Amino acid sequence: MEERQSSDLRVEDAFTAAQYRVYPETPLTEIVDLMVRRGLHALPVVGEQYEVLGMITTGDALDRVLREGPGEDDEGHEERKKKLTARDVMTRAVLCVSETQPLLDAARTMVNRNVGQLPVVRDGELIGLITRDAVLSALHGNRDNQDEREED
Fold first, then answer.
1. How many Å apart are CA 15 and CA 139, to the nearest integer?
2. How far apart (Å, rounded) are the C-alpha atoms in residues 116 and 32?
3. How far is CA 115 from CA 31, 73, 133, in A?
4. What is the mean pLDDT of residues 79-91?
5. Residue range 22-28: mean pLDDT, rounded
6. Does domain 6-151 have CATH number 3.40.50.620?
7. What's the whole-number average pLDDT of the chain?
8. With 0-12 CB in 10 A as exposed, 13-18 as middle and 19+ as buried, what is 139?
9. Residue 72: its pLDDT value, please?
């Protein structure tokens, strides 16, 4: 197997195929349930052609749940929570990366924009997510390979 330098790595070397996604009409209660059950930190919101419309993070969901929580003498809070959808909560300005983009560029974007994951798209369609953990693992694994070559 040919070993590659960090500068040669691409997003495709570290991203995970999209296992979960939600649609704009998905109720927030279902989204929170999915996040909790599966230990997800973020979910992409996609349209009919699987184009990325937004992202919902655990922070977005928690913020909205707290804002919609009961106030004094507020009996309608449960009904309001049930009516919330992904469209109401998602972050719309989402930066996506291509699978062929250099991994170091994606890593810099994550750090500079302070995001933990980025959607990966091919021809405008969601194919996966890349996380900081995956980037770090790919770069560190590559560094271990370089260290071993230098020792030989």
1. 13
2. 18
3. 20, 38, 12
4. 85
5. 96
6. no
7. 86
8. middle
9. 52
Rounded CA Rg of the chain:
19
**125-144 pLDDT tens trace:** 999 999 999 999 998 886 44
CA distance 127 to 134: 16
Q: What angle do CA 93, 127, 90 make, to 5 degrees?
A: 30
pTM: 0.80
Tokens representing residue 20 in the block: 């979960």
Distance CA 80, CA 68 (A): 7
- Judged on CB neighbours under 10 Å (0-12, 13-18, 19+), 94 is middle
Amino acid 78: pLDDT: 60
pLDDT for the residue 152:
47
Which ranges of 19-131 does DSSP label H, i.e. alpha helix? Answer: 28-38, 58-67, 77-83, 86-89, 103-113
Token pair 């021809």: residue:
123
The Cα 59–Cα 67 span in angstroms is 12
